[in-house]
Amino acid sequence: MTFFRPINFKTMPTVPADSPQAAAFRRQVLNPLKLRLFLLQKLPMAWLAGLRLTALTPEAATVTIRYKYLTQNPFRSIYFACLAMAAELASGIQAMMHVQAGGPVSMLVVSIQGDFTKKAVGLISFTCPDGPRIAQAVAESRATGEGRTVECTSTGTDEAGDVVAVFRLTWSFRAKK
To answer: Buried b vs exposed e over 56-90: b needs ≥16 C-beta within 10 Å?
Structure first.
């Protein structure tokens, strides 16, 4: 018997696209100063790397990272761990937003996989369009009290629109009692 079960999206109840708590969270983190303070307090490596949240809706989020001295590797591109950090934040900020409404839910990355297709230089934007799936998993966990997992995909593109990396992150959600 496994602790986490895959989500069956066809039989799950619908989730409201937005809640007042999620909207308030979104307003907070889309404020550049408040986001920087949040990153400095909770994710200092993301703050040092210069991650920026450029878009956050109930459906998707976009996080950018720029090639610079603190994010470089010896091959004159962005270090893979910095790319992974941006990809994780693109899905994780959505998870944090959807957890805001309702009772407490624990969330954890249980798996991460990355594919790199091009050298990452310049400004890289990671977009994760899995907000509805995350919201469904959180709602299902709250409804059943059981853990749920969701595999999210964060795709990184450069300024020319070319895909440089694709990360698949598996998040687990479990409503706290």
So the answer is: bebbbbbbbbbbeeebeeeeebbbeebbbbbbbbb
Structural domains counted in the chain: 1
pTM of the model: 0.85
Q: Is residue 56 part of a domain?
A: yes
Q: How far is the C-alpha of 126 from the C-alpha of 165, rounded, in Å? A: 9
Q: CATH number for the domain including 80?
A: 3.10.129.10
- Token pair recorded at residue 111: 């798996």
Helix (H, G, I), strand (E, B) or coil at 166: strand
| 25 neighbors 96 (Cβ within 8 angstroms) | yes
In a domain, 7, yes or no: no
State which amino acid sits at residue 51.
L
Q: Is residue 59 part of a domain?
A: yes
For residue 79, give its domain range: 20-175
DSSP state of 13: P
Instruction: Note the pLDDT tens digit of each residue in 9-62.
Output: 333 333 454 678 888 888 888 999 999 999 999 999 999 999 999 999 989 999
- 150 occurs within a structural domain: yes
CA 64/CA 1 separation, integer angstroms = 40
Q: Give residues with Cβ within 8 angstroms of 167, minimum separation 6.
A: 83, 84, 87, 88, 112, 113, 114, 115, 126, 153, 154, 155, 156
